[in-house]
Amino acid sequence: MFGKFGKKVKFNRHEIAGSFGDIGTDLPLIVGMIQAVNLNSASVFIIFGISQMFAGFFYGLPMPMQPLKAMAVLVITQKVPGEILFGAGLAIGIFMLILTLSGGLNLLARLIPLCVVRGLQFGLGLSLASLALKTYIPSAGIPGYIIAALGFLILITTPKYSRIPAGIAVILLGLLYAGLFSLNFQEIGSNIGLAIPEFYQPKWSDILTGFVILALPQIPLSISNSLIATEQTVKDLFPEQRVSIRRIGLTYAIANVIAPFFGGIPVCHGCGGLAGHYALGARTGGSVILYGSMYLIIGLFFSPVFGEVVQVFPQPILGVILLFESLTLLLLIADQAAEKNKFIIALIVGLFALLVPQGYILGMIIGTGLYYLSNRLTFFTQM
């Protein structure tokens, strides 16, 4: 089986291990949105799973789909109704389709220098590391720290070509922990049943409202992280592959134009997800297809008890996986260290992305300006 770009899609132990590389960011956001505004869990999991499988087959690379993070946070914290979320998904899909087909996305990608992209990747890596160390790993107290420490040791000590890859060993460790302390097998077994997505037709009022309150805050993050930084991460990790930003923009747009009609949450590509799959061993789209199959199965058969099923992945284990995803992104800044000006710009962009509201777009704008003005600025010329 082959992806769009001729890279063979494989299903081996390394792809199985890599398939869990993005679960630390995706699963909490998906569960949080479902519970916050009572979304149809079957629709959400099924469509999310199908979108993953589409991306894996289409690209032939571990190019996953992710929930739109800014939208997800707003929905969870402000209880934005599901119909507005679906309207926002359709709105941002149309916006990205226009931006891509008009050539605007290609223009942005040419104007924004590599050091700024490295800063965006670095900022995201810091954010993910902070989430892992401050939220996920401490979530279960002392037992959580112990299980996280064991998972960390497995990931750093398991040989690269071990018969049981480190990613699989860590997931099995989490499953053992969940089976002993949190899973209710009786409740899960008694609630298995077939479910299908519900058709939904967004109203114009929901599309307009969703664009204003959810899509507008999301667009800067998507342009910087989901599109420009993702294209660069593909070049970094798979230099033999040619994946244009136009193609990434089109699959982003198409997924969001279709998903709302079936109750699916808005999604994007992301450099963090790609790095996460790669960090745990994935090298083809097989990992993303396997990852999507997990969500598809949960949606089809376990949606009534999805809250129990997702406990198979304890938060301390998700935290360790998330930490390794972050390290893959953080290390990409190394190629800027040879030129002091570019390295400083990358660090400035990364700090904006980490610490400032709307920091991704502000960091991108400020970093790009600094790059083009660096030869004229005293701060850079005297260093």
Keywords:
383 residues, mainly alpha, two-stranded antiparallel ribbon, 2 strands, 1% strand, globular
Low-confidence stretches: none
Largest sheet, order of strands side by side? 1-2
Helix content: 55-70%
Count of helical regions: 19
Question: What is the CA-atom radius of gyration, in angstroms?
Answer: 20 Å
Main β-sheet description: 2 strands, antiparallel
Q: Name the structural class.
A: mainly alpha
Number of E strands: 2
Report, as a whole number of angstroms, the end-to-end distance. 53 Å
Any overview of this molecule?
The chain has 19 helices and 2 strands. By secondary structure, it is mostly helical. Helix 8 (141-157) packs antiparallel against helix 9. The longest helix is centred in the middle third of the chain and has 34 residues, at 204-237. The model has no long low-confidence stretch (mean pLDDT 90).
Provide a short characterization of the protein structure.
The protein has 383 residues and is mostly helical. It has 19 helices and two strands.
Describe the protein's topology.
Elements (H helix, E strand, L loop, with lengths): L12 H6 L4 H15 L3 H19 L6 E2 L1 H10 L3 H20 L2 H8 L2 H23 L4 H17 L8 H16 L3 H6 L13 H34 L7 H14 L8 E2 L2 H9 L6 H16 L4 H4 L5 H16 L9 H16 L3 H15 L4 H4 L2
Antiparallel strand pairs: 1-2
Helix pairs in contact: 2-4, 3-14, 4-11, 5-11, 5-12, 7-11, 7-16, 7-17, 7-18, 8-9, 8-16, 11-13, 13-16, 17-18
